[in-house]
Structure formats: C-alpha cells, structure tokens
Amino acid sequence: MVAQQTPTVKSEPFNIIVLAANPVYNGTYLSGVRAGPYVNKMTFSKTTSTPKPYYLNTTQNSNYGGHLCVDYTGSTSAGNFTVPLNFQIKGSLSTNLASTWMSATGEAANGVEFDQDGLMGLHIGGHDDTKMPDPKLVLSGPKVLRRWVACKEFGPYGGIMDTLMWVSGGKPQNPTCYDVSLKRI
Questions:
Q1: What is the mean pLDDT of residues 54-70?
Q2: What's the pTM value of the predicted model, to 2 decimals?
Q3: What pLDDT is recorded for position 55?
Q4: How far is the C-alpha of 157 from the C-alpha of 42, rounded, in Å?
C-alpha cells in the first residue's frame, strides 16, 4: 500500500514587520543579509527590497503551523532561476540564544504560526522547559511560544549587526537583546 501524501498549501505572500518598545527596531521589516550561497542571516531593514517576500507552507488540515519560506531569485547566462529558502533556527551550546536563518539546505523550522493578530510564534513541544513540566500541559500537546529578540552579534562577514534571535529559556545571555514581536502584514 502506498502512503497518501497530504497536499502542501502555500499562503499568499506577505511581509513581516517588527514591533518593539525600542525605536531602533520598531517598524522595521524582517529581512535577510546574504551569508553564503542561498543562505541569509535574519536581520532588520527600514524598507523592504521585495514586496511581500514571505509565504507559509502548511499541510492541509494541520493544526501545528508550517514552514516560513522566501524565494531567492538569481540569474545566470542560462537564464533566471528561483531557489526556495526555508526559515531555520540554529542553537549554540555557548548561549541560550539561537540564530535565525533562511537557507536552501538543512532542516526547516517546523511549526511557524501566526495568531489572529498576525503575530508569529513557534509550536514548541507539549511543555515549556523554562518551568517545571506539568503533566497536564505535556499531554495537551504543543503550544505556541513567542521568544523573539533583536540582538547585536558578529555578522557573517565580520563587524557587528542587529539580528533576530530566539531565546531558548530565561533572560537572554547577550546584554544587547531587546524583546520584539513579528507581525504578518
């Protein structure tokens, strides 16, 4: 018997704007800085170079969000081409912060979701590891968390840049971080 695949549903394209108490970040757009072939480090921009670059791939009838994606378009002597880049979160053993990327390779972050107000979060397990596990919460399934921060860090080509990070738990260990929300528009 062949397993039946569930169709992928691609959303209409959209932008993501940053909401923050810090005026440096408030009202900026989530964008990417090239960090390698088909790899972008997630950062912030006052303008958007591509109108509505993001889309959300979900599985039909899924209750657990989907994959945030963007198309990278380039050209060669043979013509134009498009490569889909998937949103990724990469942790580090040296900090409680995880970097955010758009990349054509590697595993996409599952469970990206936007609530009724358009705010972006992630479906994370059945419990919050920043607190003592509650068996009732573990059994109730995944919940959406929003732990986005804007931090200064070393950029892919040297120098210091503002980047979007995910806090794995507790207060961010980087003292330059500010809480941000990401809104789909």
A1: 84
A2: 0.84
A3: 93
A4: 14
